[in-house]
Amino acid sequence: MQLKQYLWIVCIIFQLSVKAQQADSILQTIQTASDNEKFGVYIKLAELNTNTNPFKAIEFANNALTYKQNNEQEAIAQKLLGTLYYRTGNINKSIECFTTNIELENQLKNEQRKAQSQSALGGAYFAAGKLSDAAYNYLQALRYFEEVQDKNSMVSVYSGLANIYTKQNNFSKALEYNLKAIEIYETSSNEFKKLLGYEQIGNLYLRQRNYSKSFDYYNKALRIYQEMNNNAGEASIRFQLGNTYIQSGEFESAIEQFNAALILSQKLKILPLEAANNNELAKAYEQLGKLELALKHANAAKIIATQSHLKIEQETAYETLARLYNATQKTQHAKTFETLSKNIKDSIYNDSTLKKLVDLQLLYESEKSKQQIQLQEKEQEILANNLLKEKQKKTILLVGFLILLVFFIMILVLYFQNKKQTKILFQRKEELKQLNTVKDRFFSIISHDLRNNLTTMRLYFELASNPDYKPEENSLQELSKQISSSVDNTIELLENLLVWAQTQVNGIKVNLKKISVNTLVKDNIALLSATALQKEIQLTNTTSDDCVLADEDMLNLVLRNLISNAIKFTSNGGKVYVHSQRKENNVLIEITDTGVGISEEAQKQLFTRNLNPSTLGTANEKGTGLGLILCKEFIEKNNGTISIESEEGKGSTFKILLPLAI
């Protein structure tokens, strides 16, 4: 997955579809061309050889560089070389050429091309495992793209920054940039959606785990690339399709796509993509238990990544090899690659890098705020000057009584304008205050509960993978239960978190329709029966055949959260009942458990918008209170009410009242 943010760098050089005869024809003109013309001829030859022989293309681009007449031509050659070196796996040379190009574009005062090269340089630094350098160049490019509202480039940079912060386990910043990219897509016009491209849209849906839409857009992009006979674009899309299949658990289909992408990347000599495909093939074969094939591809990825200084892919290969050698009982090999993986992780994800990322982000936000303030001050100065000139003109033209009348009118106008502006400023202040509250709640969940869950899982997995750890049968079962519980908690938290974040960004849209309460409850009990079985909890459904008028997705989330909470806070061997009955023109749904109950003080804070500290279930399951906040908001949006009756030690009953569907 780590290759997404820089695959587009490779794709931009494959837009020319040419025949070998064209290159031969142009090559013949070298003998008669002047020194001034030779630069253009060699650049064209480099472009024509990009697909068929990228190493020959590098030779032509370097020849062009020897005939450059000015900084403009040198900038063109350096940018092309940066792209070619990146493709052929010479990351250090790619970084060197992109850096030189940026210096030249700065001298030429071409901010657009400079920003484009900074974005490309960010991708190259990411591949080399230099995350702080990657973030610096992405943020430099983002300043320009946001200023000129180049939304296509903004989405690409947001995606790159999201991947950087994901690698650093800074999920709050990663989600922030991902939501920015999604917001641009969802609020844009149809014309912009076409410009954005199917591949980028597919990437956004994949990040949201919306696999059906992701497949839809990737396949649209694949058809276009195939019609264009663009093998590089096809390789990129097949790699993305493979990632989507592997995330959705369809490993055979994933292998088919990765193999197709690998063949194309080997043919085109795109070494970063070749290493990435080998890494993903190793993971897919590992899931299918085909360990020999997994080892073959992991070793291939390791060799390519090591030779090309692709630290991100190198770290992935080491980690995979450590797992595979553990699985094949080659503990010494496993320890070696565990050590190598740890060392390279320490070099990429150390505290110094994290501090640099924080400092860069703060500097970016500070400079952005200063620019906004300066722009506002300039606009206010222009507005003040215009008002002054208008006032002076009227003062000269009007005499006597008219002067007094106009002066009085101007005072009134200024008064109402000031009143209106004061109202607008107050509204903006309230909006900013609300957004800040949302941010604080958001960061509270990410920094506390999600980090704790992931840290717990990592400790469990490290313990389980330790070759010296020989657990007893009972302790092994308990460890498995703990790992499963931690995974379930994390999934539940992420699902609620993503739903809640989407409501904060896009608002809540309600689609009311007739819904069978009994059917919906049956589905959710079936979904949660495995969790209840682990605690030997009896789930009982005594709901009626009444239907309610509500949004199915929202009501489904509410029922799932409440039944899951009932299981979570009920001891082993307990009972959970779901009952419904008609109340005049409404239907009352009750979820009752025989669990630990809730104190009166805690009940007062259950549905508040301020997130509370985590609460442990009877089997140490974690909760955040976010699910209950969503339940209250969704039920009220469906013209209903939600309440609780509970007593400590005697269980709880959550009551939902919704309109009866007639």
Q: What's the total number of strands?
A: 9
SS strand fraction: 5-15%
Q: Give the number of helices.
A: 26
- What is the average per-residue confidence, as pLDDT, rounded to a whole number? 78
What class would the helix/strand composition place it in?
alpha+beta
- How far apart the termini lie comes to 49 Å
Low-confidence stretches: 1-20, 190-196
How would you write the strand order of the largest sheet?
2-4-5-9-8
The coarse silhouette is: flat
Question: What is the gyration radius calculated from CA atoms?
Answer: 30 Å
Biggest sheet record: 5 strands, mixed
Helical residues, percent: over 70%
Overview of the structural elements:
- It is a single chain.
- With 662 residues, the protein is α+β, with helices and mostly antiparallel strands.
- It contains 26 helices and 9 strands.
- The protein has a 5-stranded mixed beta sheet with strand order 2-4-5-9-8. A two-stranded antiparallel ribbon has the order 1-3.
- A hairpin with a 5-residue loop joins strand 6 and strand 7.
- The longest helix has 66 residues.
- The N terminus is likely disordered.
